[in-house]
Specification:
The chain is of the alpha+beta class. It has 16 helices and 13 strands. Helix 11 packs across helix 12.
């Protein structure tokens, strides 16, 4: 059974179809792995093993992923009749009354949901250490962070509990955990996946739904399932030429690729591990026949971007707390929040609607400045994170000056593409001397997930990803 659990989700689905393993055997083996290893990793906040086993008899016979186990992030990804906490004690006792559209599509595809994974409180930081649930640990080194805000999902996949888990990304929250846990993490184009029925968008359009996986083909195949316009959505992404799963086997052709080794902020010192990761990836891409040069959008280092981005996020945090108060029937007091979110809520409440609209207009202009670079290039190659892998506690919860000061440089390569809405993928192509994963990020023009999947699959064939943290019962 260990051999089947080591397969990706596409491989596990094939094993079920071919009769090499039954859905029940596969799900029970995944549950056994979770029970054996989640005690040390702390990835799952709401297990639902008995419900999952009871649902096996109702799986659609012709579902493409019939019986394949999956975990979903406890931020968004609502499940009817299940608890929802978003990493916070403010929602204790609250259950959801309807599935998110993306969850419905996972169920229709035959996935079996085993539980909900940990996230920092309201997903507002890049390490998963919520006070309510404790830290999620990186399977590569238990003293290190699995990233955030999809850290629980990433650690679970890296450890081999499931082959794929859902995620979301408002400032890097798919790509950063993927980088730190040695996984594939693709943030889709804005509007590619529906946030319904509860919301039209997340973080004023900056948040996107996606997943973390161990292979490019899993990322492509599962994104095909969860993406697509749903009636009532406020907007949608440009149409793709066909299923992303088909793009895995399509050669990308000779691409014009620019890269940046140095941090976009001149006041942030360079990091040798990050520069080495990009240099190695650039060399590989050149060997694969691409035109590679040191070039990147000048706007990537815009000194004003962090304040506009942070202001928009703060406003959304304040609005979310207002919604939670109405949902649970009593207002959320600042004293209930972790210090980081307390500060962000106060900042958000101090902003006016005019402030928010002007910030969004600034981002509109920023998006056009960024997009102009892709008129002469196909793909940008940069580090995923702006800092090396970090230990638990690196973002001290009670020292906000240090915590926020460290966050800005860390997300300098991820958050700009939440603002622009472009697709970006983190690939596990580098390890530090201590063996910790370091991801590199490929960014395409808006709507070009197809190009990213083609290129990422080509890279994976030339440099197969190694997943050294896999653990099984």
């Amino acid at each position: 059974m260990d051999e089947v659990l080591r397969l990706d989700a596409v491989g596990q689905a094939r094993a079920v179809r071919e009769g090499r393993v039954s859905p029940r055997e596969l799900v029970e083996a995944a549950i056994a792995t979770i029970r054996a290893h989640d005690g040390e990793l702390n990835t799952i906040v709401h297990p639902r093993f008995e419900r999952a086993l009871a649902e096996l008899d109702d799986l659609p016979e012709d579902a493409p992923f019939r019986g394949v186990p999956i975990l979903v992030k406890d931020l968004g990804w609502a499940q009817a009749g299940e608890p929802y906490n978003a990493g916070s004690s403010t929602l204790d006792g609250v259950e959801v009354d309807a599935d998110a559209h993306a969850v419905t599509r996972l169920r229709q595809a035959g996935f079996v949901i085993l539980g909900r994974t940990s996230t920092p409180e309201f997903g507002t930081t890049i390490t998963t250490e919520p006070v309510a649930y404790g830290p999620t640990r990186n399977p590569y080194d238990l003293a290190y962070s699995a990233g955030g805000s999809s850290g629980g999902s990433a650690a679970a996949v890296a450890a081999g509990m499931v082959a794929v888990a859902t995620a979301s990304d408002g400032g890097g929250s798919i790509r950063i955990p993927a980088s730190l846990c040695g996984l594939v993490g693709l943030k889709p184009t804005r509007g590619r996946a529906s946030h319904g029925p509860g919301e039209g968008e997340g973080w004023s359009g900056m948040s996107a739904l996606g997943l973390v996986s161990r292979t490019v083909r899993d990322t492509a195949a599962v994104l095909d399932l969860i993406t697509g316009y749903v009636s009532g959505d406020p907007y949608t992404a440009p149409a793709l030429p066909g299923p992303l799963a088909h793009e895995v086997d399509v050669e990308p052709g000779r691409l014009r690729i620019g890269f940046a080794r140095e941090h976009p902020r001149p006041d942030v010192p360079g990091e040798p591990e990050l520069a080495a990761a990009v240099t190695s990836a650039a060399t590989l891409l050149e060997k694969l026949g691409h035109e590679v040069e040191e070039s990147w959008p000048a706007a990537l280092g815009d000194a004003d971007f962090p304040s506009y981005f942070g202001g928009i996020v703060a406003g959304n945090v304040a609005a979310e707390l207002e919604s939670i108060g109405r949902w649970r029937g009593r207002p959320v007091e600042l004293s209930e929040l972790e210090p980081r979110n307390r500060s962000m809520a106060e900042a958000g409440r101090g902003r006016s609607a005019v402030d928010h609209i002007l910030a969004m207009r600034w981002v509109d202009r920023y998006r056009r400045r960024m997009a102009a670079w892709w008129d002469g290039h196909d793909v940008l190659l940069v580090p995923t994170l702006g800092i090396p892998p970090y230990p638990l506690g690196w973002f001290p919860p009670d020292d906000l000056s240090t915590s926020f000061g460290r966050t800005g440089p860390a997300v300098a390569f991820t958050s700009p593409f939440n603002a622009t809405g472009q697709p970006a993928i983190s690939l596990p192509l580098h390890r530090t001397a201590a063996g910790l994963p370091v991801g590199v990020q490929l960014v395409a023009a808006a709507g070009r997930e197809d190009l990213l999947v083609r290129l990422a699959a080509q890279v994976e064939r030339a440099h197969p990803f190694v997943h050294a943290a896999l653990r099984h019962s």
